[in-house]
Amino acid sequence: MHFLYQKWDPRFNSNQNLPVFDKLNDIFQQLLYISSGDVGQALKWLTELDKEYNLTGEGDEYGIADFIKDLEDKGYIKYDEEAVEVVLTRKSERELRTKALEEIFRNLKKGSSGEHKTSYEGKGRERHPETKKWQHGDDFNQFDSPGTILNALRNNPIDDFRLTEDDLQVYETDHNTSMATVLMIDLSHSMVLYGEDRITPAKKVAMALAELILNNYSKDSLDIIAFGNEVWPVTIEELPYLKVGPYHTNTLAGLELARHILQRKKHANKQILMITDGKPSAMYENGKLYKNSYGLDRKIVNKVLNEATNCKKEKISITTFMIAQDPYLQNFVREMTEANKGRAYFSGLDNLGGFVLEDYVRNRKKRV
Questions:
Q1: Sign of the torsion angle spanned by Cα atoms 82, 88, 91, 96
Q2: Stated pTM of the model
């Protein structure tokens, strides 16, 4: 038996066999989600957690001050002289998206996700054992040599062997298509009501979806819009900084903007993914914001249903991820889903990411 000894490094945590920096950075990133990218607030919370739970371990070998210096040296944070505060760098924003994607996929069941596949035959990445007669436009890379020779032998006498177009056989494949997606995120005040933080999981899902598409589906497009009283586009870089406001829920304006964005796309498939926890409670009427927070206002609801129908006419599917359990809200979602012939998931916060990413991966289907 052999033993390998090395100098003890105080930066490593003996319980998790991880550098203290990595352990602190994992916690720091979770705090950044909650603080909407406010570095100062996240570091303040981290310092308080360290005092209470001794995150850095015993002794003075490595403390929060060392961690902050490492963050700066590694290019995760920087001092913004104009804003007079410490801010995230592009590197840090990118890592937040990557970690969100890893976290969500880590919670998915093995084998539950994969490439965007469809039930249609055509050019694709995965070959099936089934074959079919060759047609003009089929990929000769999927040529079935044994099947073609057998066809030729069956169709011609052995002493007059010939190969004709009718003999050609190819393998069937999955058909991978392109997808244009608009992700709608509800920033109304109900996303943080009743002591439940709903916006943080929603932001994580948006960041994970953005990273998934950027890294794996380069031909797809992703546009993100936030909606409250108003509706506005959000860049991928802005995702960590989204905050809930004292807003009502203008679902109608969100769907209208999403549809107009998708009208300009040339992709084979177009879809809207909407993350919300509330009913539509506002809309613009004659240039003024009409709002009603009490119950389901049929004037607002009917306008939303009309817009869902407009999306259906333009072959834009709406998938709603409802993160509230109120039966009357779920009834509204079912009504909107029926109008659009789309999909709906009634999801808790813990499995929201799995629902969104699995739905995206599985339902990139060509419509004929």
A1: negative
A2: 0.76
Per-residue pLDDT for the chain (368 aa), expressed as one digit of tens each?
A: 444 445 545 444 444 556 889 999 999 999 999 999 999 999 999 999 999 999 887 666 889 999 999 999 999 999 999 889 999 999 999 999 999 988 887 766 433 333 333 333 334 445 555 667 766 656 666 767 777 778 777 777 777 777 777 777 776 665 557 899 999 999 999 888 777 888 999 999 999 999 988 888 888 999 999 999 999 999 999 999 999 999 999 999 999 999 999 999 998 899 999 999 878 999 999 999 999 988 889 999 999 999 999 999 999 999 998 887 778 788 889 999 999 999 988 877 888 888 888 888 776 644 32
Question: Class of the 179-362 domain?
Answer: alpha beta
Contact 27, 18 (CB under 8 A): no
Neighbours of 35 (CB within 10 A): 19
CA distance 187 to 319: 18
